[in-house]
Amino acid sequence: MSITAASATWFLPFTLPICLYIMFTDMKQMRIPNHAVGTLFVVFVVIGLIALPFSEYLWRYVYFLVALVAGMALTAARAMGAGDAKWIAAMAPFIHLGDLSFLMILFGVTLLAAFIGHRFAKLTPIHNLAPAWVSWQAGKKFPMGLALGPTLAIYLALGVFYGQPAP
User: Fold this and answer.
1) Are 118 and 26 within 8 A, CB to CB?
2) Alpha carbon 47 to chain centroid distance?
3) Quick one: which of 75, 68, 107 has its CA closest to 89?
4) Could you count the other beta carbons within 10 Å of the beta carbon of residue 120?
5) Whole-angstrom distance, CA of residue 60 vs CA of residue 142
6) For residue 56, is it within any domain?
7) Which of 52, 79, 106, 111 is placed for a possible disulfide with 57 were both Cys, Cβ 3.0 to 4.6 Å?
8) How many CA atoms lie within 13 A of 143 on its CB side?
9) 30: left (phi over 0), alpha (psi -120 to 50) or beta
10) Phi, psi (rounded to 5 degrees) for 128
11) Ordered DSSP codes for 64-107
């Protein structure tokens, strides 16, 4: 992995609760709240100053802008929800550019597991544990936060253990 273990160690404890929260809210309400997206971005703004070299920290804002523009285009094309697009933009600065291919594979695996798990729970009595959750009745729609949250959390957790040593 290209991310440093030190930066992953700084980011993980602050991002993990937010990742869990968006998984919950997306399953419950089929939306990723703006305050969660904003909080994730603020975590990067503050912790990024500690976790990254300053020049790299500044470049990571370019990742945010590129992901935001791409997400807006996909939202306009109705290919993804606005909350998903904003979440992806907010999580982009946490990702080392050298890990982008790995992240795409990780996201694919996480998406598949989340989709199968959600559909399994939806079709079994497990969904009775939270019968009012909107995602159970959302038809073909899927709460993408159920895959996006774990993708960031797993990426950073792997970075803690398999990331590069600090320069």
Assistant:
1) no
2) 17
3) 68
4) 11
5) 29
6) yes
7) 52
8) 28
9) left
10) -70, -15
11) HHHHHHHHHHHHHTTSS-HHHHHHHHHHGGGS-GGGHHHHHHHH
Kindly state whether residue 97 falls inside one of the protein's structural domains. yes
Element (H, E) at 40: helix 34-51
Judged by average pLDDT, the poorest of 58-67, 96-105, 110-119, 136-145 is 136-145
Q: How far apart are CA 76 and CA 113, in angstroms?
A: 27
Q: How far is 93 from 119, CA to CA, in rounded Å? A: 31
AA letter at 133? W
Judged by DSSP in three states, 96 sits in coil
Kindly give, in sequence order, each residue whose CB lies less than 8 Å from that of residue 141, ignoring residues fewer than 6 positions away: 30, 135
Token pair in block for residue 99: 């890990």
Q: How confident is the model at residue 166 (pLDDT cuts 50, 70, 90)?
A: confident
Q: Mind listing the pLDDT tens digit for each residue in 111-138?
A: 999 999 999 998 888 888 888 899 988 8
Whether residue 31 lies inside any domain: the answer is yes
Q: Is residue 68 domain-resident?
A: yes
Helix (H, G, I), strand (E, B) or coil at 140: coil
- Number of domains composing the chain: 1
Using CA atoms, how far residue 89 sits from 31, 119, 162, 165, in Å, is: 16, 27, 24, 26
The reply to whether the predicted model has a pTM over 0.85 is yes
Residue-number span of the structural domain to which 108 is assigned: 5-162
Q: How many Å apart are CA 27 and CA 118, to the nearest integer? A: 9
